[in-house]
Structures are given as structure tokens and as C-alpha cells.
Amino acid sequence: MPALRQANVSDHGTLVECVHQWWGDSRTPEQARELSLLLPRLFLQFFSGTSLILEDGTDIRAFLIGFYAADNDTEAYIHFVGVDPKLRGQGIARRLYTAFSQRAAEEGRTEARAITSPMNAGSIAFHRAMGFSLEKGDREDDGLSVHTSYDGPGQDRVCFYKKIAL
User: Fold this and answer.
1) What does the alpha-carbon distance between residue 50 and residue 96 come to, in Å, rounded to a whole number?
2) Are strands 75-83 and 52-56 parallel, antiparallel or unpaired?
3) Cβ–Cβ contacts within 10 Å for residue 36, how many?
């Protein structure tokens, strides 16, 4: 069973390489590189204490980059999650989300948040299965509440929230 540990700044290069490799089957190399840009080093410099790595021996097999809101003491945010394609469907992402939520609740956080693209049906299904609710957006697409241009022009997102507790 892979071991769960706190992330370190020194994990950054490996995580970027994981993104390139793990999403290489569903994206072009350029798209995988663009996706890895969502994972700048600063997330590990400032949020390694709230981010998680799942290791099998010396290899990273999954990770969750998350942090607690600085502007309030109730919210925690899951920014980026990756699971080695060989381990998908085995409950690894669930394990990461559960561990993050438990740690956040221990720190007094009462709500977890996350976002995804409206086109990412797998992520939407996963979040719903994990008990996340959709935050009402400004439009609906096929029954899905969407926030138009959430991350800039043409970058629509689906926003999730979930109450968490010990």
C-alpha cells in the first residue's frame, strides 16, 4: 500500500513530470505542458503543509495540492489532483480527498471547495460521488451549472463545495 506524506518543495520537478506523463495519453504534449503550468513551484513553497503525496517506494503515484483560505477560517481548497493512470479506479483520489478533508477539519475548516472544466465529465462525476454539491453559476449547460469565464475569457468552470467535519 503506497504511503501518504506531506508534500515538499523538492517534489515540484517530479510533479510537473508526472503531469506530463500521466496526462500524455489524453492530451498533446503541448496541452500536457500547459496543464502543468497550473502547478507552479509557489504552491509547494507556501502550501506544502496542506498538500499530499502518495508514494510507492521512491516513486510518486498520486498527489493533491490544496490549501486553506487566507481570507477566512472556514474554507479549504483542492487545487490540483493527479493519480498515476495505472492506479486510477482504485480509490486513490478518494483517499487523498478524505485525508485532506480530515486534516482541514482538524484545523477548524468546515467547507472544502474545488473547480473543474465543464467538459471534464470524469471530474464532475468524481466530485459528485464524493458528496460535493455544485455552486450555482450564471448559466446552465445540459443541466450543469456553469460559471462563465471563471478563470478568464473562455475559461468556464464548474464550482464545487462540500461541508466537512471531524
Assistant:
1) 11
2) unpaired
3) 18
Q: Which is it for strands 75-83 and 139-141: parallel, antiparallel or unpaired?
A: unpaired
Q: Are strands 111-116 and 75-83 parallel, antiparallel or unpaired?
A: parallel
Q: Which of 62, 64, 51 is nearest to 7 (CA)?
A: 51
* Those residues with Cβ within 8 angstroms of residue 127's Cβ, 6 or more apart along the chain or in another chain: 114, 116, 160
DSSP code, position 136:
P
How many C-beta neighbours within 10 Å does residue 5 have? 12
Q: Give the integer Cα–Cα distance in Å for 143 and 98.
A: 28
Selection from 41, 19, 38 nearest residue 29 by Cα: 19
- The answer to whether 134 touches 115, Cβ cutoff 8 Å, is no
In this structure, the number of other CB atoms found within 10 A of the CB of residue 101 comes to 23
Quick: pLDDT tens for 68-102: 999 999 999 999 999 999 999 999 999 999 999 99
